Amino acid sequence: MPGVRYYDILETRRPAQREAALMAALAVHVAHAKQEAPHYAALLADVDAPAIESRAALAALPLTRKSDLVQQQREHPPFGGLARAKGEARMFISPGPIFEPEGFEPDDFRLARALFATGIRQGDVLLNCFAYHFTPAGRMMEAGAHALGASVIPAGPGNTEQQVLAISQFRATAYAGTPEFLKIILERADELGSDVSSMVRGHVSGGAYTPALRSWYGARGLSVRQSYATADVGMIAYESEAGEGLIVDEGVIVEIVRPGTGEPLPDGEVGEVVVTPLRASYPLVRFATGDLSAVLPGMSPCGRTNMRIRGWMGRADQAAKVKGMFVRPEQVAEIARRHPDIGRLRLVIGREGDTDTMTLHAEGPDEAGAALADTLSTVTKLRGSVAMARPGSLPNDGRVIEDTRPT
Fold it and tell me: What is the pLDDT of residues 48-101, one digit of tens each?
């Protein structure tokens, strides 16, 4: 497909056309989840699936949290009731442990679109340095590359000199793996005097793709782009040639919600990434990833019209133990609910001597401090102080609990 700019026509749909198609598919997906997954049959028992055809209706449904999966799958093996244990093409174990299925669809995790945006085409040779042992990352990349007609070297991580040998012998043109490992391979190739000039592009995920690393690859003439995917959901968002944020995949519905709640946030506010992947083999509904991100305004200059997010911005799972009791983001959200005139809140956990301390930083007038202190004590069952701040002064980073205690 040389010269073809987009993976398919879905990427350049009018936003209203896409939204209508997604919402129609959502109602079918919710019905499928209730039928195929015991967890959703119980959780959504009173939900009329055909009525779930808007983002407002979706936002009214309960979350399924990734952080609950370990216990849930222990009680209801193998997949915690999120999928029926039948007919999986592959079954994986991720750290946790968390167990995930792969269906028989050729590109069940939907990586092909992201790899296409990286520039990978039929005839490319991909050095796949994601792990193949138990975890799904290696398989995810391989299936996406095969969907594009690219050949794959199933390298996995480590064995740097063999990676160099594989590039030079097979004339590998593309890399998939963590952001920093390609640099390690190329530096080793330089030391060995090996010809790895065939490697011209890369697709990275699973780690921080820093500006310094991006500049290093650019100086060598490599085009390296990133994506955001998980073992449960598959592809969530990917980078295009524009390099301005990550474009949401066409096969998912993404919400950014206030940490500790299922409440959608306005565009630009940092919150937890919640994904509903329109995937038959693992029919998740409002799956709370525990990751933080934010919606970017407007559309990508590359011509793709789907919504964009800023990429991975940290973890939303911010629970902290204070004086032997857990304080959770949902409690901070409850304080905000009881004080709707207050702006952002940030609960800072500290230590004075051997004693844990709590200070609730809140955007609003000084006279609101006393009422906020009472609510803080009522909701958390712990005493803490309140520090009022001017509106807009607290950082927009999605963090509602900050633990400053030395580890």
Answer: 999 999 999 999 999 999 989 999 999 999 999 998 767 789 999 998 899 999
Give how far the C-alpha of residue 353 lies from the chain's centroid of Cα atoms, to the nearest Å. 38
Phi and psi (nearest 5°) for 108? -60, -30
Decide: 308 and 244 in contact? Cβ < 8 Å. yes
Give the distance from CA 389 to its chain's centroid: 31
One-letter amino acid at 49 equals A
Given the structure tokens 């607290």, which residue do they identify? 394
401-403, strands of its sheet edge to edge: 385-389, 355-363, 345-352, 401-403
The CA angle 222-228-232, to the nearest 5 degrees, is 140
CA-based R_g, the chain, Å: 23
Name the β-bridge partners of 100: 92
Helix ranges, 313-403 (H): 329-338, 369-380
Reference 115, options 174, 186, 46; nearest CA is: 174
Phi, psi of 85 (to 5 degrees): -80, 75
Q: Which residue from 333, 399, 340 is spatially nearest to 368, judged by alpha carbons?
A: 340
Strand order in the sheet with 295-296: 151-154, 125-128, 174-177, 201-204, 223-230, 234-238, 246-248, 308-309, 295-296
**Cα 268 to Cα 397: distance, rounded to the nearest angstrom:** 10
CA atoms 304, 305, 306, 311: torsion sign: positive
Residues 6+ apart with CB under 8 A from 216: 183
State the pTM of this model: 0.86
Report the half-sphere exposure of 10 (CA within 13 A, side-chain side): 14
**pLDDT, position 37:** 95
**pLDDT tens-digit readout, 152-201:** 999 999 999 999 999 999 999 999 999 999 999 999 999 999 999 999 99
Beta strands 345-352 and 325-327 are unpaired
Q: In a 3-state reduction of DSSP, which class is residue 277?
A: strand
Q: How many residues does the chain have?
A: 407
Q: What gap in Å lies between CA 210 and CA 213, rounded to an integer?
A: 5
**Domain spans of the chain, in order of start:** 320-403
Q: Which amino acid is at 113?
A: R
**What is 320-403's CATH superfamily?**
ANL, C-terminal domain (3.30.300.30)
